[in-house]
Amino acid sequence: MPDPARPRTGMPSHPAARSPSRRPVPAPPVPPPAPSPGPDPLLSPPRLVPGPPAGADPPETTAGLLVRAGAAVQAARRRRAARHGLPLTAVAVLDALARTDGLVQRELAARVRIGPATLTPVLDTLEGAGLAARVTDDGDRRVRRVRITDAGRDRLHAARPAAHGPRLPEPATGHVEPIREYLIAVIAALEQDHRDGPW
């Protein structure tokens, strides 16, 4: 019987000399997925202020509101003057003659702020209705002056309040001076400078 104290022939006597074990090597742990990076701030679209709803018109400018208000006032005055059988321009002509009678046509056109060519048919209408008359100047027969008749004064007296309306609301106390300054700037741009203005 072999001696159990003696090592077997051909077998390694030291544990380190034994063949390595064939245990499976565990796989390295899989790292969790990295969170997706946020959008690049250099490539992201900027945040925009919410605009008006789809299909809504943009707000009107101050200049646009001024034009709209002026047109509304003129339309109301035309309707009111028409009730007295006169165009609004004819009322303005009679009003200018009532203040300074006997103006030549060029002066009268400047007072009413219309062109001489526009004034001529208005005077034809007023003269045909007996409300004004074109007469020859006593000192220079080449000059013709326009005079208002008594019938024209009576008609103007009835039509003037209507043509000067409608009554408009006054702005709030703190808004009066800024509004006046803006309106004066508009008038200076369009009338005094004789140009179309910055619009």
Give the low-confidence spans: 36-46
Spatial gap, N to C terminus:
124 Å
- Rg, rounded, reads 48 Å
In DSSP terms (H or I, runs of 4 or more residues), the helix count works out at 6
DSSP strand tally: 3
Helix/strand structural class: mainly alpha
Give a written overview of the molecule.
- The protein is mostly helical.
- Helix content is 43%, strand content 6%.
- The chain contains 6 helices and 3 strands.
- It has helices spanning 62-82, 88-99, 105-112, 116-128, 150-164, 176-192, and strands at residues 103-104, 132-136, 144-148.
- The chain has a 3-stranded antiparallel sheet.
- A hairpin with a 7-residue loop joins strand 2 (132-136) and strand 3.
- Helix 1 runs antiparallel to helix 5, helix 2 (88-99) packs across helix 3 (105-112) and helix 2 (88-99) packs across helix 5.
- It is elongated.
- The model is unreliable at 36-46 (pLDDT under 50).
